Prior knowledge:
Layout: H1 3-15, E1 20-22, H2 28-31, E2 42-46, H3 68-88, E3 92-98, E4 106-111, E5 114-120, H4 121-124, H5 131-146, H6 165-181, H7 186-189, H8 197-206, H9 210-236, H10 267-279
Parallel strand pairs: 3-5
Antiparallel strand pairs: 1-2, 2-4, 4-5
Helix pairs in contact: 3-5, 5-6, 5-9, 6-9, 6-10, 8-9, 9-10
Bound molecules: zinc ion.
Residues 45-47, 140, 144, 165, 168 line the site of zinc ion.
Amino acid sequence: xxxxxxxxxxxxxxxxxxxxxxxxxxxxxxxxxxxxxxxxxxxxxxxxxxxxxxxxxxxxxxxxxxxxxxxxxxxxxxxxxxxxxxxxxxxxxxxxxxxxxxxxxxxxxxxxxxxxxxxxxxxxxxxxxxxxxxxxxxxxxxxxxxxxxxxxxxxxxxxxxxxxxxxxxxxxxxxxxxxxxxxxxxxxxxxxxxxxxxxxxxxxxxxxxxxxxxxxxxxxxxxxxxxxxxxxxxxxxxxxxxxxxxxxxxxxxxxxxxxxxxxxxxxxxxxxxxxxxxxxxxxxxxxxxxxxxxxxxxxxxxxxxxxxxxxxxxxxxxxxx
Length: 321
Ligand SMILES: [Zn+2]
Protein backbone atom coordinates (compact mmCIF):
# COMPACT_ATOMS: atom_id res chain seq x y z
CA UNK A 1 0.00 0.00 0.00
CA UNK A 2 1.49 3.35 -0.93
CA UNK A 3 1.74 6.22 1.50
CA UNK A 4 -1.07 8.14 -0.17
CA UNK A 5 -3.48 5.28 0.46
CA UNK A 6 -2.28 4.93 4.03
CA UNK A 7 -2.83 8.65 4.48
CA UNK A 8 -6.33 8.46 3.07
CA UNK A 9 -7.16 5.53 5.31
CA UNK A 10 -5.90 7.45 8.31
CA UNK A 11 -8.02 10.42 7.30
CA UNK A 12 -11.03 8.17 6.94
CA UNK A 13 -10.38 6.65 10.35
CA UNK A 14 -10.24 10.11 11.87
CA UNK A 15 -13.38 11.42 10.24
CA UNK A 16 -15.28 8.24 11.01
CA UNK A 17 -15.42 9.29 14.64
CA UNK A 18 -18.55 11.06 15.75
CA UNK A 19 -16.41 13.72 17.27
CA UNK A 20 -13.59 14.46 14.86
CA UNK A 21 -10.13 14.17 16.32
CA UNK A 22 -8.11 17.23 15.47
CA UNK A 23 -4.66 18.60 16.03
CA UNK A 24 -5.28 21.64 18.25
CA UNK A 25 -2.71 23.70 16.35
CA UNK A 26 -4.56 23.13 13.10
CA UNK A 27 -7.85 23.81 14.84
CA UNK A 28 -6.66 26.93 16.62
CA UNK A 29 -9.32 28.97 14.87
CA UNK A 30 -11.83 26.90 16.74
CA UNK A 31 -10.21 26.55 20.11
CA UNK A 32 -7.88 29.55 20.46
CA UNK A 33 -5.39 27.45 22.35
CA UNK A 34 -2.08 25.87 21.59
CA UNK A 35 -1.49 22.21 22.22
CA UNK A 36 0.15 21.13 25.40
CA UNK A 37 2.36 18.09 25.65
CA UNK A 38 -0.30 16.13 27.44
CA UNK A 39 -3.13 17.07 25.12
CA UNK A 40 -1.97 16.71 21.55
CA UNK A 41 -5.17 15.34 20.15
CA UNK A 42 -8.60 16.60 20.92
CA UNK A 43 -12.08 16.15 19.69
CA UNK A 44 -14.34 18.62 18.02
CA UNK A 45 -17.94 17.46 18.44
CA UNK A 46 -20.21 19.08 15.86
CA UNK A 47 -23.96 19.57 15.85
CA UNK A 48 -24.40 18.80 12.14
CA UNK A 49 -22.35 16.58 9.85
CA UNK A 50 -19.53 18.52 8.22
CA UNK A 51 -20.82 20.73 5.40
CA UNK A 52 -19.56 23.54 3.23
CA UNK A 53 -22.53 25.85 3.64
CA UNK A 54 -21.47 29.31 4.79
CA UNK A 55 -23.73 32.25 5.57
CA UNK A 56 -21.70 35.40 6.31
CA UNK A 57 -23.26 38.03 8.57
CA UNK A 58 -25.65 40.22 6.58
CA UNK A 59 -26.03 37.76 3.72
CA UNK A 60 -28.91 35.72 5.15
CA UNK A 61 -32.15 35.67 3.22
CA UNK A 62 -34.64 38.19 4.59
CA UNK A 63 -36.44 36.77 7.59
CA UNK A 64 -34.16 33.78 8.02
CA UNK A 65 -32.82 32.77 11.39
CA UNK A 66 -32.25 34.89 14.48
CA UNK A 67 -30.52 38.26 14.88
CA UNK A 68 -27.37 39.02 16.85
CA UNK A 69 -29.21 40.25 19.94
CA UNK A 70 -31.22 37.03 20.08
CA UNK A 71 -28.07 34.97 19.42
CA UNK A 72 -26.42 36.53 22.47
CA UNK A 73 -29.55 36.35 24.62
CA UNK A 74 -29.94 32.62 23.93
CA UNK A 75 -26.30 31.93 24.79
CA UNK A 76 -26.64 34.03 27.97
CA UNK A 77 -29.76 32.17 29.01
CA UNK A 78 -28.42 28.65 28.52
CA UNK A 79 -25.04 29.61 30.04
CA UNK A 80 -26.72 30.97 33.16
CA UNK A 81 -28.01 27.47 33.89
CA UNK A 82 -24.95 25.50 32.89
CA UNK A 83 -21.97 27.60 34.03
CA UNK A 84 -22.64 26.72 37.70
CA UNK A 85 -23.36 23.08 36.86
CA UNK A 86 -20.09 22.72 34.97
CA UNK A 87 -18.26 24.57 37.77
CA UNK A 88 -19.67 22.08 40.27
CA UNK A 89 -18.06 19.33 38.20
CA UNK A 90 -14.67 21.03 38.24
CA UNK A 91 -14.87 22.59 34.78
CA UNK A 92 -15.24 26.07 33.40
CA UNK A 93 -17.76 26.73 30.63
CA UNK A 94 -16.25 28.74 27.81
CA UNK A 95 -18.65 29.78 25.04
CA UNK A 96 -17.08 31.23 21.89
CA UNK A 97 -19.66 33.52 20.30
CA UNK A 98 -18.77 33.43 16.62
CA UNK A 99 -21.56 35.61 15.26
CA UNK A 100 -19.59 36.86 12.27
CA UNK A 101 -18.44 33.34 11.30
CA UNK A 102 -20.66 31.90 8.56
CA UNK A 103 -20.12 28.26 9.51
CA UNK A 104 -23.45 26.42 9.66
CA UNK A 105 -22.66 24.31 12.69
CA UNK A 106 -21.78 24.36 16.39
CA UNK A 107 -19.15 22.36 18.24
CA UNK A 108 -17.85 21.29 21.60
CA UNK A 109 -14.28 20.67 22.64
CA UNK A 110 -12.39 20.32 25.89
CA UNK A 111 -8.91 21.17 27.05
CA UNK A 112 -8.15 20.38 30.66
CA UNK A 113 -10.72 22.13 32.82
CA UNK A 114 -11.95 24.38 30.01
CA UNK A 115 -15.16 23.00 28.56
CA UNK A 116 -15.75 24.88 25.33
CA UNK A 117 -18.82 25.34 23.17
CA UNK A 118 -18.48 27.13 19.81
CA UNK A 119 -21.65 28.79 18.53
CA UNK A 120 -21.58 30.08 14.95
CA UNK A 121 -23.57 32.87 13.35
CA UNK A 122 -23.96 30.83 10.17
CA UNK A 123 -26.21 28.33 11.93
CA UNK A 124 -28.10 31.16 13.68
CA UNK A 125 -28.78 32.67 10.22
CA UNK A 126 -29.85 29.40 8.60
CA UNK A 127 -33.35 29.14 7.16
CA UNK A 128 -35.95 28.35 9.81
CA UNK A 129 -33.65 28.70 12.83
CA UNK A 130 -35.46 30.01 15.92
CA UNK A 131 -34.32 31.16 19.35
CA UNK A 132 -35.66 27.93 20.87
CA UNK A 133 -33.90 25.94 18.16
CA UNK A 134 -30.62 27.70 18.78
CA UNK A 135 -30.96 27.03 22.52
CA UNK A 136 -31.46 23.35 21.73
CA UNK A 137 -28.34 23.35 19.54
CA UNK A 138 -26.38 24.68 22.51
CA UNK A 139 -28.02 21.98 24.63
CA UNK A 140 -26.73 19.39 22.14
CA UNK A 141 -23.19 20.73 22.52
CA UNK A 142 -23.48 20.75 26.31
CA UNK A 143 -24.71 17.19 25.93
CA UNK A 144 -21.33 16.17 24.54
CA UNK A 145 -19.83 17.42 27.82
CA UNK A 146 -22.54 16.31 30.24
CA UNK A 147 -24.50 13.52 28.54
CA UNK A 148 -22.61 10.55 29.95
CA UNK A 149 -23.19 7.09 28.49
CA UNK A 150 -22.61 6.18 25.71
CA UNK A 151 -19.38 8.07 25.20
CA UNK A 152 -16.98 8.16 22.29
CA UNK A 153 -13.50 6.82 22.65
CA UNK A 154 -10.57 8.47 20.95
CA UNK A 155 -7.33 6.93 19.82
CA UNK A 156 -6.01 4.38 22.34
CA UNK A 157 -9.06 5.04 24.49
CA UNK A 158 -7.98 8.53 25.49
CA UNK A 159 -10.13 11.66 25.34
CA UNK A 160 -13.25 9.79 26.29
CA UNK A 161 -14.99 12.78 27.78
CA UNK A 162 -17.48 13.22 24.95
CA UNK A 163 -20.91 11.65 24.78
CA UNK A 164 -21.73 10.39 21.31
CA UNK A 165 -24.08 12.21 18.91
CA UNK A 166 -27.25 10.34 19.75
CA UNK A 167 -26.69 10.79 23.45
CA UNK A 168 -25.99 14.52 23.04
CA UNK A 169 -29.41 14.77 21.34
CA UNK A 170 -31.08 12.70 24.07
CA UNK A 171 -29.54 15.00 26.70
CA UNK A 172 -30.60 18.10 24.77
CA UNK A 173 -34.32 17.56 25.26
CA UNK A 174 -34.46 15.42 28.40
CA UNK A 175 -32.11 17.41 30.59
CA UNK A 176 -31.14 20.75 29.11
CA UNK A 177 -34.16 22.12 27.24
CA UNK A 178 -36.41 21.08 30.12
CA UNK A 179 -34.15 22.73 32.69
CA UNK A 180 -33.81 25.98 30.74
CA UNK A 181 -37.48 26.38 29.77
CA UNK A 182 -39.28 24.84 32.74
CA UNK A 183 -40.17 28.13 34.40
CA UNK A 184 -41.31 29.96 31.30
CA UNK A 185 -44.98 30.36 30.45
CA UNK A 186 -44.97 27.51 27.96
CA UNK A 187 -48.75 27.41 27.65
CA UNK A 188 -48.64 31.02 26.50
CA UNK A 189 -45.61 30.40 24.27
CA UNK A 190 -47.62 27.79 22.36
CA UNK A 191 -50.83 29.80 22.18
CA UNK A 192 -50.35 30.58 18.48
CA UNK A 193 -48.65 27.32 17.56
CA UNK A 194 -50.45 24.42 15.97
CA UNK A 195 -49.03 21.42 17.82
CA UNK A 196 -49.49 18.15 15.91
CA UNK A 197 -51.69 15.57 17.61
CA UNK A 198 -48.80 13.08 17.60
CA UNK A 199 -46.76 15.41 19.83
CA UNK A 200 -49.60 16.08 22.26
CA UNK A 201 -50.38 12.38 22.47
CA UNK A 202 -46.74 11.45 23.10
CA UNK A 203 -46.34 14.14 25.76
CA UNK A 204 -49.61 13.21 27.48
CA UNK A 205 -48.43 9.63 27.85
CA UNK A 206 -45.90 10.74 30.45
CA UNK A 207 -47.03 14.13 31.68
CA UNK A 208 -50.38 15.01 33.22
CA UNK A 209 -50.33 18.69 34.17
CA UNK A 210 -50.98 21.33 31.54
CA UNK A 211 -47.68 22.98 32.49
CA UNK A 212 -45.62 19.82 32.00
CA UNK A 213 -47.38 18.92 28.78
CA UNK A 214 -46.75 22.41 27.38
CA UNK A 215 -43.03 22.20 28.18
CA UNK A 216 -42.87 18.83 26.44
CA UNK A 217 -44.81 20.15 23.43
CA UNK A 218 -42.44 23.10 23.15
CA UNK A 219 -39.49 20.70 23.20
CA UNK A 220 -41.22 18.63 20.52
CA UNK A 221 -41.81 21.60 18.24
CA UNK A 222 -38.21 22.70 18.70
CA UNK A 223 -37.02 19.17 17.91
CA UNK A 224 -38.74 19.52 14.55
CA UNK A 225 -36.94 22.82 13.87
CA UNK A 226 -33.62 21.05 14.37
CA UNK A 227 -34.63 17.97 12.40
CA UNK A 228 -35.72 20.21 9.51
CA UNK A 229 -32.43 22.12 9.72
CA UNK A 230 -30.39 18.91 9.64
CA UNK A 231 -32.50 17.53 6.82
CA UNK A 232 -32.12 20.69 4.71
CA UNK A 233 -28.36 20.66 5.26
CA UNK A 234 -28.14 16.95 4.46
CA UNK A 235 -30.11 17.36 1.23
CA UNK A 236 -27.61 19.96 -0.01
CA UNK A 237 -24.78 17.45 -0.10
CA UNK A 238 -23.86 15.67 -3.28
CA UNK A 239 -24.80 12.90 -3.11
CA UNK A 240 -27.56 13.76 -0.68
CA UNK A 241 -26.97 12.38 2.79
CA UNK A 242 -30.69 12.40 3.54
CA UNK A 243 -33.49 10.36 1.87
CA UNK A 244 -36.18 11.97 -0.31
CA UNK A 245 -38.74 11.89 2.49
CA UNK A 246 -38.46 14.62 5.11
CA UNK A 247 -38.60 13.75 8.82
CA UNK A 248 -41.97 13.80 10.56
CA UNK A 249 -43.42 12.92 13.95
CA UNK A 250 -45.48 10.09 12.50
CA UNK A 251 -42.77 8.26 10.57
CA UNK A 252 -40.18 7.12 13.14
CA UNK A 253 -37.09 5.45 11.75
CA UNK A 254 -37.31 1.69 11.34
CA UNK A 255 -33.53 1.28 11.13
CA UNK A 256 -31.89 -1.09 13.61
CA UNK A 257 -28.17 -0.83 14.22
CA UNK A 258 -26.16 -3.92 15.10
CA UNK A 259 -23.70 -1.89 17.15
CA UNK A 260 -24.14 1.57 18.64
CA UNK A 261 -23.49 4.27 16.05
CA UNK A 262 -21.51 7.14 17.56
CA UNK A 263 -21.81 9.38 14.53
CA UNK A 264 -24.58 11.77 13.48
CA UNK A 265 -27.77 9.80 12.74
CA UNK A 266 -30.08 10.85 9.91
CA UNK A 267 -32.56 13.66 10.61
CA UNK A 268 -35.53 11.33 11.20
CA UNK A 269 -33.56 9.30 13.73
CA UNK A 270 -32.46 12.49 15.47
CA UNK A 271 -36.07 13.69 15.65
CA UNK A 272 -36.97 10.33 17.23
CA UNK A 273 -34.17 10.78 19.80
CA UNK A 274 -35.21 14.34 20.64
CA UNK A 275 -38.80 13.18 21.12
CA UNK A 276 -37.72 10.22 23.26
CA UNK A 277 -35.83 12.66 25.48
CA UNK A 278 -38.77 15.04 25.58
CA UNK A 279 -41.22 12.38 26.79
CA UNK A 280 -38.97 10.41 29.17
CA UNK A 281 -40.28 10.91 32.70
CA UNK A 282 -36.83 10.83 34.32
CA UNK A 283 -36.20 14.21 36.00
CA UNK A 284 -33.66 16.57 34.48
CA UNK A 285 -32.01 16.84 37.89
CA UNK A 286 -30.90 13.24 37.63
CA UNK A 287 -27.66 13.15 35.64
CA UNK A 288 -27.02 10.47 33.06
CA UNK A 289 -24.61 7.83 34.33
CA UNK A 290 -21.14 7.84 32.81
CA UNK A 291 -20.81 4.10 32.40
CA UNK A 292 -24.22 2.46 32.24
CA UNK A 293 -27.36 2.76 30.14
CA UNK A 294 -29.92 3.12 32.89
CA UNK A 295 -28.73 5.98 35.11
CA UNK A 296 -30.77 9.11 34.47
CA UNK A 297 -32.37 7.59 31.37
CA UNK A 298 -35.38 5.72 30.13
CA UNK A 299 -33.83 2.37 29.26
CA UNK A 300 -34.93 -0.91 27.81
CA UNK A 301 -32.15 -2.42 29.91
CA UNK A 302 -34.34 -1.61 32.91
CA UNK A 303 -37.58 -2.60 31.22
CA UNK A 304 -38.90 0.81 30.19
CA UNK A 305 -41.40 0.47 27.38
CA UNK A 306 -40.90 3.78 25.59
CA UNK A 307 -38.76 6.95 25.50
CA UNK A 308 -35.56 4.89 25.51
CA UNK A 309 -32.64 5.56 23.12
CA UNK A 310 -33.89 4.69 19.62
CA UNK A 311 -32.62 1.60 17.82
CA UNK A 312 -31.68 3.65 14.77
CA UNK A 313 -28.42 4.54 16.57
CA UNK A 314 -28.36 2.67 19.88
CA UNK A 315 -27.75 -1.05 20.36
CA UNK A 316 -29.40 -2.20 23.55
CA UNK A 317 -27.25 -3.79 26.19
CA UNK A 318 -24.28 -4.63 24.01
CA UNK A 319 -22.02 -1.65 24.18
CA UNK A 320 -19.68 -1.04 27.08
CA UNK A 321 -18.33 2.48 27.38
ZN1 LIG B 1 -22.66 16.67 18.17
